[in-house]
Amino acid sequence: MAYRISRVTTSKGDQGTTKLADGKTLDKFDGRVELSGTLDEANCSIGVLVQHVDDEYQHTLVTIQSRIFDLGAAVATGDPQPIWQRETDAITNATKELNDQLPPLREFVLPGGGKASAYAHVARSNVRRTERVFWKYAPDSLKEAGLGAFLNRVSDYLFVLSRIVAEQEQLWEPLRS
């Protein structure tokens, strides 16, 4: 088996450009590079979350991480692969299964609720940012393939997971006059 990454330092980006998998050289401030970076940030924050949740949630989170790598590959190649509705359906079902275990909310939840819950909220907010960047910079082919919907469902999953793993849930107390 050939190695995909044989060296990390290439010095090719030292002048503010980077080369994507489709062979295009882009400025590091290009929208596709920004999107790739936010995907990486979201994936890293989910990786931290994986370290703080019970085993029963780790498989789904690691699967999400792999799909986020697939999203990054789609951004780098422009090839979205026609499987995203299946993946979106899977995460939608996982979210519903978790949410069915929870009481309905009567108010917004303050991020926190213990270490695992706080990490889930951080991951959720990073995925939400990634979703915004996706809709701003992704090529139409990726938008039409449903990759944005997948990101939206992942953030939903992370919100529900934050509630599941919370040691305590603190609800927002709105300012009253």
Major sheet attributes = 2 strands, antiparallel
Overall 3D geometry?
Answer: elongated
Q: Can you tell me the residue ranges where pLDDT is under 50 for at least 5 consecutive residues?
A: none
Could you estimate the helical fraction of the residues in percent? 55-70%
**Helix and strand pattern:** EEHHHHHH
Average pLDDT score: 89
Query: Measured on Cα atoms, how large is the radius of gyration?
Result: 18 Å
Instruction: Order the strands across the largest sheet as they lie in space.
Output: 1-2
**Distinct helical segment count:** 6
N-to-C terminal Cα separation, in Å?
67 Å
Beta-strand portion reads under 5%
Structural class per helix/strand content? mainly alpha
Total strands:
2
Short description:
With 177 residues, the chain is mostly helical. The protein has helices spanning 31-50, 55-77, 84-99, 115-137, 140-144, 147-164, and strands spanning 17-19, 25-27.
Topology:
Layout lengths: L16 E3 L5 E3 L3 H20 L4 H23 L6 H16 L15 H23 L2 H5 L2 H18 L13
Antiparallel strand pairs: 1-2
Helix pairs in contact: 1-2, 1-4, 3-6, 4-6
Quickly list its features.
two-stranded antiparallel sheet; 6 helices
Question: What would your notes on this structure say?
Answer:
The chain has 177 residues and is mostly helical. It contains six helices and two strands. A two-stranded antiparallel sheet has the order 1-2. Helix 1 runs antiparallel to helix 2, helix 1 packs antiparallel against helix 4 and helix 3 packs parallel to helix 6.
